[in-house]
Structures are given as structure tokens and as C-alpha cells.
Input
Amino acid sequence: MVYVTRKMHFSAAHRLFNPTFSHEKNEQIFDKCNNPMGHGHNYTMEVTVKGIPDPETGYVIDLKVLRDLIEEHIIEHVDHKHLNHDVDFLKGIIPTAENLAIRFWSILEPKISGGTLHSIKLYESDANFVEYFGEPVSIPVYNVDSSKTVETL
Ligand code: NI
Output
């Protein structure tokens, strides 16, 4: 098995808060990340696909194809956007790096052929990153208007 990785970058704003928490509890848990108007990150994402190299091409997956998939399905939707407001597939989700990695996985995984998706590593900064390997997890989706959880992904 060979592991092939494409690194991508995007810049986005987000605010971390839970609409079912009080203002005080959001401040306590999310601190500066709860700033009402949001704050920004320069994200780096590493998408790793695993597989056996095709005997005729030597590729597990053509990295240009992988780049284009990530660009079309993730980057174009999140780059220079506010993750709490502008992105359909993140509506109602607390946009932590953890939850972003899980959502990105669910979007990319069905679109990859040749190899299979192995991991998504998402850096919010040089020091802080998460890595997700696709184990099933559910994410609550909040309705920011009624302060109720409306569904679980
Ligand atoms: Ni942040």
C-alpha cells in the first residue's frame, strides 16, 4: 500500500460558539474564538489517498486529479469565506478544525477513485492541527435561530 498526499491551502473566518450555551458559557469555553464577528485562519489541508500503484501508470491516484477534486468540492466553497455563514455544507456546525475535517471527508470520500481516502489533516496554524481517518462520528447541526439541535450528521 502506498500513501499519496496532496497539500492545499485556504483562508477563512469563523466563530466558535454553541447557540444553546449562555453568553457566559460560550465565553468560558471558546474564549477569544467566540469573538462575535469572527476571526481568521490560514488553513493547510493534507489529503492522503492510499492504494496500489496502477501497473500501467505507476499512480495510486493522479495528483492533478486529486488537486482538482479538492479544489472544486472544498476549496472553492470555503476559501475567503466565513465558515459560519457562507458555506452550505457547514450550516449549523460548530466550525472547529475537527468538524471541518469530518465534513470535508464526507464530501471527498465518495468522489475519490483508484485509491481510497486514508486521512484528512487540517492545520489551523503551524502548532494546531487535527487528523481524521474516517471513523464514523456524528456531528450535531444547530439551528442558530431557535437554539435547538435540529439534526445529526
Ligand atoms: Ni479559530
Remarks:
- The domain at 2-152 is CATH 3.30.479.10 (Tetrahydropterin Synthase; Chain A).
- The chain has three helices and seven strands.
- Residues 20 and 138 are 18 Å apart (CA to CA).
- The beta strands are 2-14, 39-51, 81-82, 116-123, 129-132, 140-143, 148-152.
